[in-house]
Amino acid sequence: MPAVKTEKDLKALQLEGLKWTVNHAYRGSSFYRKKLEGSGVKPDDIRSLEDIKRLPFTTSKDLQEGYPFPLLSVPFEKVVRIHASSGTTGKRKVLLYTQKDIDDWAHFFARCYEMAELTREDRVQIAVGYGVWTAGVGFQLGCERFGAMAIPAGPGNLDMQCQFLVDFQTTAMCCTASMGLLMAEEVHKRGIKDRINLKKMIFGSERSSDAMRSRIRDLLGIEHLFDIPGMTELYGPGTGLDCVYHTGIHYWADYYILEILDPETMERVPEGEIGEMVVTTLCKEATPLIRYRTRDLTRLIPGKCPCGSVLPRHDRLLGRSDDMIIFRAVNIYPGQVDHILSGIPGIGSEYQIILDRNNDGKDYMTIKVERDQSGDGALDTHISKKIGEEVKKQILVSAAVEIVDYGALPRSERKSKRVFDNREF
Ligand code: ZN
Fold first, then answer.
1. Confidence check: pLDDT of 403 > 80
2. What is the Å distance from ligand 1's center to 5 Cα?
3. CB under 8 Å to 194, separation ≥6 — which residues?
4. How far, in Å, from the CA of 356 to the mean position of ligand 1?
């Protein structure tokens, strides 16, 4: 757990790290120096944590434009490794690491296993991709540093995974949530639940519905499912974990500052409200991040966790800021509608949000939702009323709700288009 015990010490450590990072980036990188000078900020201007607001933002575009070695802030001889993102949009993002960066990453990743209350007796089956990306090697490094036994299985190959579960008596498995579901169904199908010893699963980099999670838990009879966040830009996976109380993801505020900002105004949103995650590293040497816009949405969770940790919490990822809709001066994210619908029985998972501007000049929202496969049409009025009430209560807007037949909305292999904005601006 972190070296600091109180919030005051954590803040002091953050200020020290912020000063160090701005100074280091200013001296080490012509990109950052130009950027800071453009904003009229000198390293000495950073005197309090509030001064972070004076710093310019860094974006994924900056990473791509600096390809292949963007944001490099140390001499090349200090770089010991690179990692790259899978590069689905545009060029790959390449990040560089010094030995200290790798050590820091291993240290805080080991904390993930500690947070999940594993011990050195645990056997950890790592079923994520090994390669130039950060997943496999990150889980591996953290596991070895923690002192548990790593089983570097890699993704897929359910046959081998099941064999390892039985033969090696794996106690914890790291994979994506969809792989977790496949595993759970496979174990169930083979009837080997009583021969395995799996107690915990750690899920990376993917949103998972509550329904999916409870199915996995039931089929495998396991104690805990954890969410592990992470992105290549910020070392890789392992930048936080929910504790056994599962009240949100504790994030490593002693390694980075997390700001939650309104993606339109770039001002801080009140604690508890949804906004874009913007991160600033505190001790990253090779490629430090200054106010890096992740485009991921989440919210800070107010109050203290029952576990007593000084490390603050953020919610699971709730979508991408590019998906934000502004409707009657309220910022809305499709993920919020998704979240409401997933809590209402009698409907399927497919939905559409339609926005229109009528002759009266006002904006109107219609939410189309599919009835459950075995749903009863007689309940439509009741269900649509319930959805309307929840939307009003949780998102503070009024929407007309239309229940349509199961299968009536289009589906696609990729992410379905859910928002149809017919308004003219
Ligand atoms: Zn906790």
1. yes
2. 14
3. none
4. 43
- For ligand 1, the distance from its centroid to the CA atom of residue 248, given in whole angstroms, is 8
Q: Ligand 1: distance of its center to the CA of 239 in Å?
A: 15
Assess whether pLDDT exceeds 80 at residue 313: yes
Distance from C-alpha of 106 to C-alpha of 97, rounded to nearest angstrom: 12
pLDDT at residue 311 in the model: 97
Ligand 1 ion: residues within 5 Å (CB): 243, 245, 305, 307, 309
Q: What pLDDT score was predicted for residue 56?
A: 98
The first and second tokens of residue 178, run together, are 């969809």
Superfamily of domain 324-421, CATH level 4: ANL, C-terminal domain (3.30.300.30)
Distance from Cα 115 to the centre of ligand 1, integer Å: 8
What letter would DSSP give residue 239? Answer: S
Instruction: Give the tens place of pLDDT for each residue, 139-162.
Output: 999 999 999 999 999 999 999 999
Instruction: Give 228 Cα–ligand 1 centroid separation in angstroms.
Output: 14
> Does the structure show a pLDDT above 70 at 245?
yes
Which is the CATH superfamily of the domain at 1-323? ANL, N-terminal domain (3.40.50.12780)
Domain ranges across the chain: 1-323, 324-421
